[in-house]
Amino acid sequence: MEDLISNLPDSLITHIISCLPTKDAVRTSVLSKKWLNHWISITKLDLDDGVFYSQRRNKSGAKQNFINFVNRTLLFTPRNNVESLSLVITKDYDASLLNAWIFCILEKCVKKICINAICEVPFSTLTSHYLFYHSNYLEELVLKMCCCAIKVPPSSYGYFTFGSLKVLNLCAIIFTIEESLVIHLPVLTKFKTKNCLWLSAYDVTVEAPRLKTVCIKEDFKPLTRELRSCKIKFSASCLKEFTYCGHDGIMQPIVLSNPSVAYDAYVNIIIYKRGSIVDREIGSSACLLLKQFSQVKCIKFHIWGEVILNHLT
Predict the structure, then answer these.
(1) 194 and 85, same structural domain?
(2) In this structure, are 199 and 300 located in the same domain?
(3) Which of 24, 94, 117, 300 is most buried by a 10 A CB count?
(4) Range of the structural domain that residue 17 is part of
(5) Which residues, 6+ apart, have CB-to-CB distance to 126 below 8 Å?
């Protein structure tokens, strides 16, 4: 009897495998000798521990099976071959293990990285160093964490460059910075953060000449005022849309290096206040942000869910 599976052309096998979830793609290695190593050629990896827990009655073995699966996948996948990788963590894992995975993902030169984790994942010194010094290939970075502490390493040149990064989406990242920080993002178009802190006595400058969209959300209030001291400065000449949403004021000052270039932007500022009185701190921080957009096409300022200012030119 003719073995149709083994006689399929390589291009068709690769196409079939690329359409499968990563877990199933790896399983195709048992179909025949010809299929044995084809799965390592896939360019999109989805590593989700929820798949292992939902499909197994023995929950105790699901965690180790997922660990083995990720270890094997990252071990055998060639460097520079993976274009997109998604890692979803819904259970608690050892921080050193997660750091080893993240470092390995960065080392693979993946263009698009998306990591979702419900557990705390403090980046190790090695992982942080690799992220800031060896990520020029990265085009899209999404880090949606429960709590992730990243200590920014000292810069050899006074700045860091992410030459290919177009989309940056961060959630619950706490950056610790010991010196003035300049991040050069020549092709970045979208900057989005939620509940992120930039802890530093110095300013943080984001140089992004092609940046079009900025969205900053902060739905918690820091325990100490010192956390607000770091100023975030945007150098962006193509800004089209700016959204800020915060609770009890603006956590950290946000300024534009050249406010006049944002004349064509649409601005939406929302502040939720606990209580019925707007205190002086909220008023001053809001005024500072509003001044950055005094020349824009459209600006909306909301507080307590009500529109306080609606300006259209």
Answers:
(1) no
(2) yes
(3) 117
(4) 1-42
(5) 99, 103
Task: Mark whether 118 and 146 lie in a shared domain.
Answer: yes
If asked whether residues 61 and 16 sit together in one domain, one would say no
Q: What contacts 73, CB < 8 A, 6 or more positions away?
A: 22, 26, 45, 47
Instruction: Give the DSSP H/E element, type plus range, for residue 214.
Output: strand 213-218
pLDDT tens figures, 248-303: 778 788 999 888 888 889 999 988 876 555 556 666 777 888 888 888 888 888 87
Q: Report the DSSP pairing between strands 306-312 and 298-303.
A: antiparallel
Are the beta carbons of 256 and 236 closer than 8 angstroms? yes
Global confidence as pTM: 0.86
Which residues fall within 8 angstroms of residue 51, CB to CB, at 6 or more apart?
Answer: 21, 23
Whether residue 221 sits in one domain with residue 135? no
The answer to whether residue 167 sits within a structural domain is: no
CA distance 96 to 9: 41
Distance of CA 278 to the CA centre of its chain: 33
pLDDT in tens, 65-81: 899 999 988 998 888 88
Number of domains in the chain: 3
Residues 95 and 147 in one domain: yes
**Residue 204 per-residue DSSP state:** E
Does 192 share its domain with 291? Answer: yes
pLDDT digits (tens, 9 = 90+) for 125-184: 999 999 999 999 999 999 999 889 999 999 988 899 999 999 999 999 999 998 889 999
Same domain? 87 vs 236: no
